[in-house]
UniProtKB/TrEMBL annotation:
It comes from Sphingobacterium oryzagri. It is a multi-pass membrane protein. It is found in: Membrane. This is Divalent metal cation transporter. The keyword Lyase does not apply. The chain crosses the membrane at residues 36-54, 75-97, 109-129, 141-160, 180-200, 221-248, 268-294, 306-323, 329-353, 365-387. The lineage of its organism: Bacteria, Pseudomonadati, Bacteroidota, Sphingobacteriia, Sphingobacteriales. It comes from the Bacteria. Keywords: Membrane, Transmembrane, Transmembrane helix.
Length: 390
């Protein structure tokens, strides 16, 4: 039983991390490194601190209430859960179209398979995970394997690109430029929208909940952010290494350029492997979490959860095959998730102080204050970014 619990905790952390580390995550990191240079390290640092504050608040409240986010929201205000679910599903679908396309791009780089054919094959693999009778266990194992592959490959590329580590460290604490759009996009792409709920809902499904499980839940939450942040930091260093040498990064496929310029044709193949692993795990995480937001609304949905998840993947694939997936949409989707975050986090903070939801649990005051600061900060930056769009 202990091994099963440990596996579920690691699986939840990596489901969250691999849901975050999709093609949008890879693209955003490279694009912003190109525009901000070493100062992007500061953006990463701020986003990590925000991510941890968000994740700890949300996962602990989900665990202690033993409810999914939409049910918590409905308990705060009737109908609010349906509204948040709608936002989550729209964002999840937008991301999943990009995830499917990213998987196709990965297989194209790895094996020379045409992108749309690769996207279809990747979707079939993701569907296979949910066709398994033990879908939860299969999802945990798949996330762990793919997460390990991504981390090792990106660490290797960051080493061979020879980045200016000293400059990156300096600008992480003393940036030359601060970009609110970059912060919102990074936070949105890591814990915005459906992503932060992926692991929390997985723990509920695995039966890990209640006040007695909070130490484990908190550790799993931080583990998920740490894994995603590790990938982000090393990809930033790899991109910075290429930029510092004055090499040209192709705007059409920026992350591919970084890998290829760092390690030649082998690097390009390695990019294919990383992009495929990142994308197919994000397809799984997005579909699983999006459907988890509606399954408590109907016994029929709950009973046929895996079939609906598979249908979600099929719809995402059809959208991609029909309209394609430009790089810009991946950036915009991350930003939109950043706009959703203050709403969902505010709801969870209110829920933390309603005994009808959390019973006798008392949320640590420091954690609440951190959550409030994040809500205010993300709201301010969202308004500022939105105003600059017009």
């Amino acid at each position: 039983m202990k091994n099963k619990t440990t596996s579920a905790l690691i699986g939840a952390a990596l489901l969250m991390a691999t849901s975050a580390v999709g093609p949008g995550f890879l693209t955003q990191t490279t694009v912003f490194t190109k525009s901000l240079g070493a100062s992007f390290g500061f953006v990463i640092l701020i986003s990590i601190l925000i991510d941890i504050g968000v994740q700890l608040n949300i996962w602990r409240i989900i665990a202690v209430s033993k409810k999914r986010a939409q049910d918590i929201a409905n308990s705060v205000f009737p109908g609010l859960g349906a509204f948040i679910s709608l936002l989550i599903i729209i964002g999840g679908l937008a991301f999943n179209i990009g995830n499917v396309g990213g998987a196709g791009l990965g297989l194209e780089a790895l094996f020379g398979i045409e992108v749309k054919i690769g996207a279809i094959l990747s979707s079939l693999l993701a569907i296979g995970v949910f066709a398994n009778r033990q879908a939860g266990k299969a999802m945990d194992i798949f996330a762990q394997i793919m997460g390990f592959i991504m981390i090792i490959a990106i660490i290797y590329i960051s080493m061979v690109s020879n980045p200016p580590v000293a400059e990156a460290a300096l600008r992480t604490v003393a940036p030359l430029k601060i970009d609110f759009m970059a912060i919102i996009t990074l936070v949105g792409g890591t814990v915005g929208g459906y992503i932060t709920f992926a692991g929390g809902h997985r723990l509920i499904d695995a039966g890990i909940s209640g006040k007695e499980a909070l130490p484990q839940v908190s550790s799993s939450a931080v583990m998920g952010i740490s894994a995603a942040s590790l990938v982000r930091v090393f990809l930033f260093l790899a991109s910075l290494g290429v930029i510092s040498q004055g090499l040209f990064i192709d705007d059409g496929n920026p992350t591919s350029s970084v890998f290829k310029l760092s390690a030649g044709n082998f690097g390009y193949r390695l990019f294919g492997l990383v992009m495929f692993a990142a994308s197919v795990t994000s397809v799984i995480g997005s579909a699983y979490t999006s459907v988890s937001f509606i399954k408590s609304f109907s016994p029929t949905i709950a009973k046929n959860e895996n079939w609906i998840i598979m249908a979600f993947i099929v719809v995402s694939t059809i959208f991609f095959v029909a309209v394609g997936q430009p790089v810009n949409l991946l950036i915009i989707a991350g930003a939109l998730n950043g706009f959703i975050l203050p709403i969902s986090l505010s709801v969870m903070l209110i829920a933390a102080y309603k005994p009808s939801i959390v019973g006798t649990y008392q949320q640590p005051l420091l954690l609440t204050m951190v959550g409030l600061v994040i809500v205010l900060l993300m709201t301010f930056m969202s308004i500022k970014v939105f105003a600059n769009m017009f």
